[in-house]
Specification:
It comes from Rotaria magnacalcarata. This protein is an all-alpha fold. The protein is about 45% helix and about 0% strand. It folds into two domains: about 1-45, no CATH class; about 50-88, no CATH class.
């Protein structure tokens, strides 16, 4: 919320939650409403439409590239470097 207030005050936006149950939990949605954060209701949120959720496809491709050949990391720094190399 502070990021949005700082960088997007006055902008019109709507949150498009994925269908993770925790994102639509009563506690989460009850927090969004009084803060006047609009979001797509679960009832009309399409299920797994990758064309409108490109980050899911990108993440899947990246994970496959990072861990191909059975690669494993021992540190967070190794993982960060591997991700950067695979993105290039």
């Amino acid at each position: 919320l502070p990021f949005i207030q700082t960088h997007h005050a006055g902008d019109k936006y709507i949150f498009w939650l994925d269908l993770t149950s925790s994102h639509y939990a009563n506690e989460a949605t009850q927090w969004l409403r009084p803060h006047k954060i609009q979001f797509i209701p679960k009832e009309v949120n399409p299920l797994n439409i990758l064309k409108v959720q490109p980050i899911e496809g990108f993440r899947s491709l990246l994970v496959n590239k990072v861990y191909e050949g059975g690669w494993e990391t021992k540190t967070e720094l190794q993982l960060q470097r591997r991700i950067c190399r695979q993105i290039k």
